[in-house]
Amino acid sequence: MTDSTPLSVAGVAALRAQGTPVPLGVAPSTSSDMFKSAHCYTKPKAKRWDHILSLEAKSRKVSTLKGAAKYLKNPGLISLGGGLPSPEYFPIEQISAKFPTPPGFSPEETRESGTVMTASKGDAKNGNSLYDLEVALNYGQATGAPQLLRFVTEHTEIIHNPPYADWQCCLNAGSTYGWDTALRLLTERGDYILMEEYTFSSAAETALPLGVNLAPLKMDEQGLLPESMDEVLSNWDEAARGARKPYVLYTIATGQNPTGATQSGERRKAIYKVAQKHDVYIVEDEPYYFLQMQPYTGADGPTPPPPASHDEFIKSLIPSYLSMDVDGRVLRLESFSKVVTPGSRVGWAVGCEQIIERFQRNCEVSSQHPSGIAQIVLFKLLDEHWGHAGYLDWLINMRMQYTNRRNMLVGACEKSLPTEVAHWVAPAAGMFHWIEVDWKKHPGLASGKTRDAIEEDIFQAAIQNGVLVSRGSWFTADKTTPEEKMFFRATFAAASADQIEEAIKRFGDALRVQFGLS
Amino acid sequence: MTDSTPLSVAGVAALRAQGTPVPLGVAPSTSSDMFKSAHCYTKPKAKRWDHILSLEAKSRKVSTLKGAAKYLKNPGLISLGGGLPSPEYFPIEQISAKFPTPPGFSPEETRESGTVMTASKGDAKNGNSLYDLEVALNYGQATGAPQLLRFVTEHTEIIHNPPYADWQCCLNAGSTYGWDTALRLLTERGDYILMEEYTFSSAAETALPLGVNLAPLKMDEQGLLPESMDEVLSNWDEAARGARKPYVLYTIATGQNPTGATQSGERRKAIYKVAQKHDVYIVEDEPYYFLQMQPYTGADGPTPPPPASHDEFIKSLIPSYLSMDVDGRVLRLESFSKVVTPGSRVGWAVGCEQIIERFQRNCEVSSQHPSGIAQIVLFKLLDEHWGHAGYLDWLINMRMQYTNRRNMLVGACEKSLPTEVAHWVAPAAGMFHWIEVDWKKHPGLASGKTRDAIEEDIFQAAIQNGVLVSRGSWFTADKTTPEEKMFFRATFAAASADQIEEAIKRFGDALRVQFGLS
């Protein structure tokens, strides 16, 4: 492999053969640098971000005790230093898990012909595995286990190939934790951050108690509008706001929660340009990135065939902010929650070395690292069993599964919702369908009902009719400005096909009664 | 069981039979109240702590989306509300683990005759288990899985039986995370907290970047001195300090890190009294609580036999702050790290309802909950396989194992360290041995070497001689006042018997050369 070749699935074996061996011991100090291809280092380095680090982030020092670890390399040294328990006192001798054998991805096929992978104490010593159960059960470093860090680093390079040299990954206890950490690294009490006008309510609720305010940005069916971002930033009045100009954007670029909107590649470029213009740092929260679906071809339209190859699949994905991040101004929060399992509480962050180093310092004195039990199960699945090829096969399978679910829900809407008052665009990614309801046609308006009372009436009527949908107002970043429009969010992630059809029928009936439609 | 009976191991079955059934579904809302015995409610309620909650803690609201969960109880309701993925898309069909079968606790016995416990998708529906793998792999509540919460609640009641009614447990991502969360709940930038003069350096390093300062308290061989705490608080000069009087104490009461000191029951009572006098809230960080050892009877003395029963074992434990906490002014951080596995990153906090509710609100937008994969493995081990009786057997086994290790290390010190300059007290709990070195006898002093330079010389001489011990100065809470004494910390947790003996010999040789002893 030459320096100029970006990493592909096919290139992983050669890269691993040439690269630094995975350290097998307890809590080794590692970074993505051990696992990136030479191609990465042909690129320029990221900009520096000293000017946006919080006082808290700037104050963090390298752990005193971790600093002593450097002596452990001395041959023959006996350590009575660190308080690591002896593995003989971990009462778990072995962990096994049963995984799907590609292409048999369904639970039925897995029960029939799944593969059982086993991790035991002593596996590394015995040459059975690079990741020893003894190591997984002990303390680790904040970057996560090198065995899993290698996989996510390679995956990140294969999918995103960031256009600067010094990017790093840090495994973490899930993207919710990652966002909380990012806020602590990048903001001070009183600051404003930029967010989509409808956003994931938990993301807003993480920021607000820290004294961080939200500056909402307008959206269209492709999500965040670069013009709105430029306008807010260009006209920021520090005196009137009592706060410096925002320098952090939080965005869910793909299958946005709650709107289901997906920013096109062009849209992202335009937003990145505005971020450069105003020197804004971007946090892209991307749990739904691999829930990009096949094009919607109507309720009865044929579903286009799945991507024919891994390359075609990767090319079909909308480029991430990370992939266009020439400045190193993007922190990408990656998640296994929507495509593997949320219960693992394992995610990872990707960003420039400076920010990831501070991120890691924060993890050291907080979560420490994601659960080793979860890490070794994911390693067994993703690295030892599937490998990158199998994981991409799984992600293509997920694409088709979610395409099918989306089609069922949108088809049910076409069949059962009153189009006199309900409008929608079929989502291109994610798990959410965003239904606009024309509240100005509601008969209650004439008798003096407010918009909010009408939303509550419709929500309660749906509950009465046996269906729970989420109210759009739950997701507004700005709770002070009255909403012009009215939305309801329905997810196609969880319910069965029959249930989805029935649920939408119930919602449609509730709307008809509410709006006095026949 | 009548209201006046405190919970015992033998009473758990009856309590479970009478109590609320464990909810089997995804992410149910639960609390310890579902699992506590009626005896708890015969006690008065905790005091209120509004006056010590941070602005951040006070600002936290209940999650908007979690608020909608109440509608899910409606029979027949179909939810298109929450974004929970469908379990058919979790590519883990089954997880098994091999655990020791009591009393065969060693790795060898476990390999031979261990018990394999298996969690599968559909276990709850099929009546195989209360904790379904589907549930563990999905999102959960911040309190943790009710299945494991029940176990730790019962365990807490059996061991500590808190003397107030409204105590609660909240599972969390480990005690390091728990302490970080406590700081965010209880302190503001500029505050001082009380800490032992030698303390776990990571605990200090968690506080400092938050702008929280440390007020060190004097210690003796029983750890923290109540007189020092009273003196610091009574003489606190807000103007001179530029900070309000401290109202949070962080203490490691048992097998303290780094000193190995254990506060006696009397000592704890005296400290609790000072806390009441000055209205101080106590965070007791207790990872070593169950590493209380048999009395030290000299290098060749006979080890007293293990406790003959669970009752005798429980009675042998020094009462925790939680067990004497009539006010509800204690947050106890509980850990599996030293007695089961640190890699699980699962711990729990115990405190009064008001504080635990705020704790939980913080977790919701940060770690969310400990890894479900780790939780279900711990549940299989602790609840389904061992039960409380088996877990106590394990803890008694750990007590004997650590007693043996402590005896080896202290015996090696007696054999190999020059008592002209090295002094110690055999630790009664934990994993650390604290060795005082009489630096004033060091020949370097005459040639103008500073105390710190002498410490560095001894440390480096030990490294050169092939042994790593920790420097006492790494653990000082106050880095500005010069240390009067000099200590080195050696752990008996990790190395083998042979290695411990050899390592202490090397340290002794290094001391002899350093001090010019024959």
UniProtKB/TrEMBL annotation, chains A, B:
Family: Belongs to the class-I pyridoxal-phosphate-dependent aminotransferase family.
Organism: Aspergillus cristatus
Aminotransferase class I/classII large domain boundaries: 139-507
InterPro entries in UniProt: Aminotransferase_I/II_large, Class-I_PLP-dep_aminotransf, PyrdxlP-dep_Trfase, PyrdxlP-dep_Trfase_major
Taxon lineage: Eukaryota, Fungi, Dikarya, Ascomycota, Pezizomycotina
Keyword vocabulary terms for this entry: Aminotransferase, Cytoplasm, Pyridoxal phosphate, Transferase
Name by which UniProt lists this protein: aromatic-amino-acid transaminase
GO biological process, one term: aromatic amino acid family catabolic process
Listed GO CC annotations: cytoplasm
